[in-house]
Specification:
The protein has 368 residues and is α/β, with parallel strands linked by helices. It has 17 helices and 12 strands.
C-alpha cells in the first residue's frame, strides 16, 4: 500500500468514535494493513483484545454513510506517518493520532527539531507575571526564537503578545479545536498568531470543549519545545503539570522567581527548590540559548524567480530543497516562512511545498 493510501485509511479509522492511535496500531498489526482491517468480518474484529461491539457498530455506520472509501484526508492535518510529524510527539506515552493546524507550514521543520521555546504560567497572573511574560516573548522573538504557549488567559497571552509586538513568530498549542476561540476575547490574538505563526490542536474541527483537554495539550506543548520557562503559577495550576512533564522529558526548565509571599507564584517558586534554573533577566535566557533558528537578516524582496522558487519547481519536499539549495535547516525554514508570508508558496502535509495557484498535487508523504 502506498503512503498516501495508508494515510487515507488511517484517517478513515480515526473517524470511528472511540478509535485512537493505540487502537489503529493494533488493527494494522493484527490484519497487516488498515484497509484489510476495515473490511474484516465482525467476528475477527471482536476477537481482538479490547475491541467491543461499539467499534464494530461505528465502523459499520461509517461504511453506510461514506460515499467512497477510504475517506480523503483534509488539508492541514498531520498524521503519524507524515514526514512533518515531530518525533518528540511520537515518543510520548500518549502520542497524538492526528494534529490539525493553521498558519505557516514552514515552521514544522523547526518543531521537528524542537527549535521553539515554551513560555507557560497561570491564567490568573499578577501584573508582575504579565510584564515578565511580555518581556520574554519580545526578547525571544528578537533573538530569532519562535515563542510557544497555549493562548490561554494570563501568561500565555502576554507571551504571545510580546512576541507579536516584537515582530516575532508565535506558535500556539490549543486545548480546543482550531475554530473555537477560548477565551472568547482572544479572537483577535488567535487570528494574529495564525497569520504570523502557527496554531496547532489535536481536537478535530467541531469537537466540543472537553474536560481535561487543556491539561492534555500540555504534553504536546512541552514535547515540541527546546526549553520551558515557567513564569508564575499558584500551588494548583495546569502550568505545574506542564513543568512536571518538562522535567520528566529532561527539557531545561527555567523559573522566574517572585516574592515568597505572593500566592500566585507559590507553585512556580517551589520548582526553584527542585532544581529548576532561576531566570533573573530575559537576556540570561537568550545568552544560554544562543541565536534562534530565525535570527538572520530580514530577507529582501527576492528576484523573480527567486532561488527558492526555482528550486521548488512544481513542488518539492524540505529534504529535496535542502539538497538543491545547500542551506541549513534553519536558513531554509526562514526562507520558506518568508515566501509563505508573502503568499508566493503554500505548505502541504508531509513537509512539502508548492507555488501558489499550481494545479499539481504532490504525494503528501513521499519524497519527490
Amino acid at each position: 500500500m502506498t503512503i498516501v493510501g495508508r494515510r487515507s485509511w488511517w484517517w478513515t479509522w480515526f473517524q470511528v468514535p472511540g478509535v485512537g492511535i493505540s487502537r489503529i496500531r493494533q488493527l494494522e498489526q493484527a490484519f497487516g494493513s488498515l484497509q484489510a482491517a476495515w473490511w474484516a468480518p465482525g467476528e475477527q474484529l471482536l476477537a481482538l483484545p479490547g475491541v467491543g461491539p461499539s467499534l464494530l457498530a461505528g465502523r459499520d455506520q461509517l461504511q453506510l454513510r461514506a460515499a467512497a472509501l477510504p475517506l480523503p484526508v483534509p488539508p492541514k492535518v498531520l498524521l503519524p506517518s507524515d514526514l512533518a510529524m515531530p518525533p518528540a510527539l511520537m515518543a510520548l506515552p500518549q502520542p497524538p493520532a492526528a494534529l490539525f493546524w493553521a498558519g505557516r507550514g514552514a515552521l514544522w521543520p523547526l518543531l521537528r527539531r524542537q527549535q521553539a521555546i515554551a513560555v507557560i504560567g497561570s491564567r490568573r497572573a499578577s501584573p508582575y507575571g504579565c510584564r515578565w511574560a511580555q518581556r520574554l516573548g519580545a526578547a525571544l522573538a528578537a533573538a530569532g526564537w519562535p515563542v510557544m504557549s497555549g493562548l490561554a488567559e494570563g501568561i500565555d497571552a502576554q507571551a504571545h503578545q510580546g512576541c507579536l509586538e516584537a515582530g516575532g513568530t508565535p506558535i500556539a498549542v490549543l486545548g480546543t479545536s482550531l475554530e473555537r476561540i477560548y477565551p472568547r476575547h482572544h479572537q483577535q490574538l488567535q487570528s494574529q498568531v495564525g497569520r504570523r505563526g502557527l496554531l496547532i490542536s489535536e481536537q478535530a474541527p467541531g469537537t466540543p470543549g472537553l474536560r481535561g483537554a487543556f491539561a492534555k495539550r500540555n504534553r504536546l506543548l512541552v514535547a515540541l519545545a527546546q526549553a520551558v520557562v515557567l513564569v508564575e503559577c499558584p500551588r494548583r495550576s495546569g502550568a505545574l503539570l506542564a513543568a512536571q512533564i518538562a522535567w520528566s522529558l529532561q527539557r531545561p526548565l527555567w523559573v522566574v522567581p517572585a516574592d515568597s509571599d505572593r500566592e500566585s507564584a507559590v507553585g512556580s517558586n517551589g520548582w526553584l527548590n527542585q532544581g529548576a534554573t532561576a531566570l533573573l533577566d530575559p537576556a540570561q535566557l537568550v545568552e544560554a540559548l544562543g541565536p534562534g533558528p530565525l535570527q538572520t537578516l530580514v530577507l529582501p524582496q527576492p528576484p523573480d524567480p527567486s532561488p527558492l522558487l526555482s528550486a521548488l519547481g512544481a513542488g518539492a519536499s524540505f529534504e529535496a530543497l535542502q539538497r538543491r539549495l545547500q542551506l541549513s535547516p534553519g536558513a531554509l525554514a526562514q526562507q520558506l516562512l518568508h515566501h509563505e508570508q508573502q503568499g508566493w508558496i503554500e505548505a502541504l502535509p508531509g513537509l512539502c511545498w508548492r507555488p501558489r495557484h499550481t494545479e499539481i498535487d504532490l504525494p503528501v508523504a513521499q519524497q519527490p
